Amino acid sequence: MKKYLLIILVVLSACNQKKSNVPVVGFVDAFQDNTIEQAKIGFIDALKKNGFDEQKGNIKITYRNAQGSIPTLTQIINYFISEKVTLIAANASLTTITAIQKTKFIPIFMMVAPTPALMKVLNDKGESPANLFGVAEDLGYIDTSFLLIPTIIKPKGAPIRVGMIFNQAEPQSAEAIQRIEQLAKKNNITLVSLPVNNSSDAPLVTAALLNKNIDAFFANPDNTVFASFESIVKLCNQSKVPIFTSEAGLVARGALVAYGADIYQWGYQAGGQAALYLKSGNTNNLKWEMVKTRKKVFNPAVAKKYALTIPSGFEPITP
């Protein structure tokens, strides 16, 4: 009996040792959303492309979703730190910021997030956190997206009135609204914007905005907008107000047109970088990158609904 017990202990020890050698990815979404979900799919596909596959047993992905709760998000990050995950895959800006605040040592691979400068996480020397990697985006593409509106909607006489909602708690959203305010003034566009605190408030705020006689709704890069987008689409359609956006993923969900990042490719790019770290075991040759793949897309059904002509060079996209 002692002999058998010894054998069992040896086997269990070997299994635990084998398990400890398998890298663990702590992947966290800030909230449940069909658009940012594409980034997770892209990230995991990139790992598989580079040979890291849970079915092969050479990697473990521990997935958590904060469901829009900041306390839950903090608990998730703390759990990953306590479990000593190999890396943290941070999907969306709030996730990235929380991870940066909680750990200075575990590599963080961000996606669907603005640059460190826009997230205001630079140190006194203007340097980004040493453990921050992955893929970010600046706000330059928003200019191009926003200025699509006057090329497609051309009301006679009065300036175009464009409505927006934004969450002041989100760094990229606060930066975006300031940028768009200046852009609107320079291009004779009247901007009507209202703040929103969370996705549950979004329908009421959107309804209030639509009562202000706007010609178009602009969906900016805001996680609150992402999470409540179906409600926004329904309300805008009822008021016959087309939605423009800088996020290609929102076009398939009911926006008219966009020039912006491909969310799947954004995650795929971040996953490719994470794979390089897993292969080498160090981050010596890594640094965060700008997103590489942007798309010009439009929704044919929405264009037909509003009888609007889309400029050439835009790729049709459907749900």
Topology:
Layout: H1 2-20, E1 24-29, H2 34-49, E2 60-65, H3 70-82, E3 87-91, H4 93-102, E4 108-114, H5 116-119, E5 132-137, H6 140-146, H7 149-152, E6 160-166, H8 171-186, E7 189-195, H9 202-210, E8 216-219, H10 223-227, H11 229-238, E9 243-245, H12 248-251, E10 257-261, H13 263-280, E11 289-290, E12 294-298, H14 300-306, E13 315-316
Can you give a write-up of this model?
The chain has helices at residues 2-20, 34-49, 70-82, 93-102, 116-119, 140-146, 149-152, 171-186, 202-210, 223-227, 229-238, 248-251, 263-280, 300-306; strands at 24-29, 60-65, 87-91, 108-114, 132-137, 160-166, 189-195, 216-219, 243-245, 257-261, 289-290, 294-298, 315-316. By secondary structure, the protein is α/β, with parallel strands linked by helices. The protein folds into two domains: 21-137 and 262-293, Response regulator (Rossmann fold, 3-Layer(aba) Sandwich); 140-261 and 296-316, Rossmann fold (3-Layer(aba) Sandwich). The chain has a seven-stranded mixed beta sheet with strand order 7-6-8-9-10-12-13, with helices on both faces. The protein has a six-stranded parallel beta sheet with strand order 2-1-3-4-5-11, with helices on both faces. The longest helix is centred in the N-terminal third of the chain and has 19 residues, at 2-20. The protein is elongated. Residues 5-19 have low confidence and may be disordered.
